[in-house]
Amino acid sequence: MMADDREKRLAALRSRVASKLSQEESEVEATLIEKSGKKRKESSIIEQARFVQESADMLIDSETVKEAVTIATKKVEEAQDMIATSDLKRLRSLASLLILTGSILGIISGALLMTGNPADLLNTSLFEESSAVDYAGDVWEADTGDSIEGALVELLDPETMTEIRSTITDENGFYRFNQVSTEESILRVSKDGYQTVERYVNPGEAGERVITLALGEGTVIEGEKSTDEGWSVENAVFLSSAIGIFTVFFGLIGVQASIEASRGKKYRRTQYLAGLALFSRGLIIFGPALILLGMIILIFSKKQFEDLVA
User: Fold this and answer.
1) Which has the higher per-residue pLDDT, 308 or 153?
2) Which CATH number characterizes residue 179's domain?
3) Which of 144, 191, 246, 270 has its CA 20 to 30 A from that of 231?
């Protein structure tokens, strides 16, 4: 009897211990599961944080790249602008040089005109006119056309009416003066029983040299005194000097146009001055051609002038 009770108490005790152990195992397992879940959760949070950090880093790197690309593009554009500007500056400098060269040629030409003496040129063998020529003609009777022998033929100074040379016609009515001045004179032909004829002649020029005498008395005036004294050396000197002064003046304007082109401030003013410099006539056509070429080049580089940039 006692043995049976003991066995029952032992069995009950074992049952309680087993139940307690089973409960503790369940609690331990639940704790482990909970801890494992927490670890997984923590691990997931860490991974998410790491992903966010990596994404942020990638975003930062992308912004950096974009900024770098923008900076590089800007620098490339600036470099292109600098190259274009440099080319235009070279064109402007070339135009300035051409205008300056043409203007200097004009100044040199003007100086030569002012310092040269046209009298020296006119006195050379190329332009020298003979100062003495032979002058001859015939004297005829007006009514019959027969030659008149023994007529007195005189060359007179038209201002003082003094005799310069004289001769007598031969049997054929022919007269001749050797080496007389080419300046205008009065040819007077007279003979008893005939009217005297006075004619204004220029021995250096071709013209009618037959004198006809009519029967009668008195004096017949033929022709008029020439009012055109021709182009004198003094006039040539004055004209040459005047042209030289104007040529130098416009050449100096061209030099100023070259300076304006080099400065690059006023485009229209530069072109106006260069246009006036065309009248400098350097070597007749060569200087103006250089200036005109410079003006054309300025058209292509006009964006370099300050008044057109704005």
Assistant:
1) 153
2) 2.60.40.10
3) 246
